[in-house]
Specification:
single chain; globular; 8 helices
Length: 126
């Protein structure tokens, strides 16, 4: 079970979405980002955090997980972590450019990861 499944189970899917959207705005990309995190190929929150560390962006993602302020991330850094295939697929799904997709993810991922890591740590079962 992923962290997203656990959080959804405890709070309800709509509650998780509303919690994240309260900070990111009513954005269909939020639901897609949550689905992407929950995708087994991503490995849940833990897998995504590891991807950031593997790409030299551990300090940034740690700020999202931790209890302090979330550091900003650039669209280029999002592309570096997620890869062009994933960014292009997201862009195609929403009818936007890959640059816009990366930029929008750079705006919403810090809040999403922050909300999915209660207590300032990645839960063990994610």
């Amino acid at each position: 079970m992923s962290i997203l499944d656990a959080v959804k189970g405890l709070m309800g899917n709509d509650t998780v979405k509303n919690l994240v959207e309260s900070e990111t705005g009513n954005n269909p990309l939020v639901s897609h980002a949550l689905d992407m995190i929950n995708d087994p190929s991503t490995g849940g929150v833990r897998g995504l955090v590891q991807q950031f560390h593997a790409n030299g962006l551990g300090d940034i993602v740690n700020s999202w997980v931790g209890s302090g302020a979330n550091q900003a991330i650039s669209a280029d850094q999002i592309q570096q972590v997620l890869g062009s295939d994933k960014i292009n697929a997201i862009a195609s799904k929403f009818g936007i450019s890959p640059e816009d997709a990366s930029g929008k993810l750079a705006q919403i991922l810090p809040s999403i990861i922050d909300k999915l890591t209660p207590g300032g740590a990645v839960p063990q079962n994610s």
